[in-house]
Amino acid sequence: MAYDLVVIGTGPGGYVCAIRAAQLGLKVAVVEKRKTHGGTCLNIGCIPSKALLHASELFDEAGHGFAVLGIKATPELDLPAMMKHREDTVRSNVTGIDFLMKKNKITAHHGTGRIVSAGQVEVTAEDGSKQVLDTKAIVIATGSDVARLPGIEIDEKQVVSSTGALELDKVPGRLVVVGAGVIGLELGSVWRRLGSEVTVVEYLDRILPGMDLDVAKQFQRLLEKQKFAFRLSTKVTKVEKAGDSLKVTVEPAAGGEPQAIDADVVLVAIGRVPYTAGLGLEEVGVARDNRGRVEIDAHFRTSVPGIYALGDVVKGPMLAHKAEDEGVAVAEILAGQAGHVNYDVIPGVVYTMPEVASVGRTEEELKAAGIAYKAGKFPFTANGRAKSTRHTDGFVKVLADAATDRVLGVHIIAAGAGEMIHEAAVLMEFGGSAEDLARTCHAHPTMSEAVKEAALAVDKRPIHM
User: Is the pLDDT of residue 337 over 90?
Assistant: First the structure.
C-alpha cells in the first residue's frame, strides 16, 4: 500500500504532523517503536513530570502553607497512590492520541522504522517480521534521548535519568542532581517537596543556561529558600556505589581538589541528544551536523529529496510545542501550502513553584547583538492578587526596542508564569509594542496585571510602584 506520507516517530512533532497532513487530505501512516503513541513527552517526560509536580506541590503546600490560611492539616504521603496518579495521567493522554489516529484515518505501524530509500520505510515488528511501506514523502520525527556522562552508568535504580526519577519507589534521603537545567530543577523540586535533601551540581557558573540571567539569579535564590543546595562551576567525575548509598566525586570545573558528596540517588540531567540510531541515515545519505542533528533547509527538507525532519532531531530548542508547530508547518508544505514557524516567538517554561516563563530575547542576547533596548520590571510583591494567594515571589520583565518600542522579550518568575507568558507571545506575533501591552485593560485583581505594569515600567510609568 502506497502512502503520501510516512512519519517515523509519534511524539508531539510526529503525531501532530500526521494529523495535520490527514486533515489536508493526505494518506498518512506512522511508525512508532513504543507500544503507545506520544513519544518521550507523553510517556516518560512532560506529562508524567507535571502530574508529579502538581501532586508534590499540593503535598508541600498542605504541610507548610495551609496553617497561615486558617486550614489545619497534617498531610501523609502515599507515594504509590501519587505514582498511580502519574500512570493514570499518562494512560489518559496516550489513549487520546490513539483515538485521534483512528479519527483521522491514519494507519499506525508499531515497530522500528528504517529508511530504505527516499520512497520506502522498512518496519521491523517486535516479533522480527518486516514490511516495507511505499510513500511519496518521509518525515523523521524520532526525537531525542538522554545525554550521558562519560564513565557513569545509568541503571535507573540508583543512578537515574529523568525516566527513572519519575518512577522511584521511595523518597531518596539525599538526591544529587547533575545539571541545573529545566529537567533537573523540575524533578529536583518533586523530590525536595516530598522530603529529599537536594544538591544540584552544575558545570557552568549559573543555573538555567540560555535563560535571562536576571531571572536565573533570582530563581536560584528562591530555590535556595526552598532548601536546594547548589554547587556551581563544578563537575562530576565519578559515581561509586558504597553499600546502599552512592559516593559522588566532584571537582571545580576549572580544576582543583576533588570532594565527595554522599547520595542515595543521583539524577543525571545534563541535557538530551538527537535520536537517530538504526534509521539508516548514513546509507541513504541524509546529512547530520557535528552534534548529530539532521540538517534541514528553511522548508524542513533534508539533503535527500523527499525526506524531511523536525523536532528534537533537528536544530533549535528541544521543546514539545516547537516540534508541534514544525509538524503543522511540514504537513502544510507537503500539501502545497506555506507552512512556517516563527522561531523568535517560542515560549519556554520551567514548571517549578514559582514557575519561570520566557519568550523572545534575553537581555544578554540583546546586548550581544548590539540592539538598544528599554526594560520594564514589576515585582509580584506589589500585586494585590499575589498578596491574597501568598505568591509574591518573582517579577515580570518586558524588554522593548529603544527606537520602535516593539516588544523583543518577556521574562516572568511567578506562580502560573507558564499561563501568563502567552499574552506576550500573542502580542509579539503581531509585532506589538510595550505601549500596546500597557494600554490593554487587564482584569483586577489578577497576577496578569503585573505584565501590564511591567509594560508601563518600560516607559517609567507603572501605577502601583
Answer: yes
